[in-house]
Design brief:
By secondary structure, this protein is mostly helical. It has four helices and no strands. Helix 1 packs antiparallel against helix 4 and helix 2 crosses helix 4.
């Protein structure tokens, strides 16, 4: 149960969407304007890249959180004599 509490605290203090977006903006802003034009990075493409990076980071974080939560719940289940838990998405079988 302590591991679940720590997991919740970790999620509570994890960077939010605003901070992730800010980090992506800072990263993309570090590309010099002259180089952006050479790379074919218009403002619209830069905005698309920004959205893609933020979505990618959020998806990776959610995947890691799901993996960690399943690991914690497996530990609890094993201690109580239940078989190992398996993840099954709603759409799959």
């Amino acid at each position: 149960m302590i591991r679940l509490l720590l997991f919740d605290l970790f999620r509570l203090f994890a960077p939010g969407g605003r901070r992730l977006r800010s980090a992506a903006v800072d990263d993309l802003a570090s590309i010099p304007p002259g180089l952006r034009s050479d790379m074919g990075m218009s403002d619209a493409r830069l905005a698309d890249e920004l959205r893609a990076r933020v979505c990618s980071v959020v998806a990776a974080r959610r995947e890691e959180e799901a993996r960690r939560l399943l690991e914690i719940l497996n530990g609890i289940a094993r201690k109580r004599g239940f078989p190992k838990l398996r993840w099954r998405s709603e759409g799959g079988s």
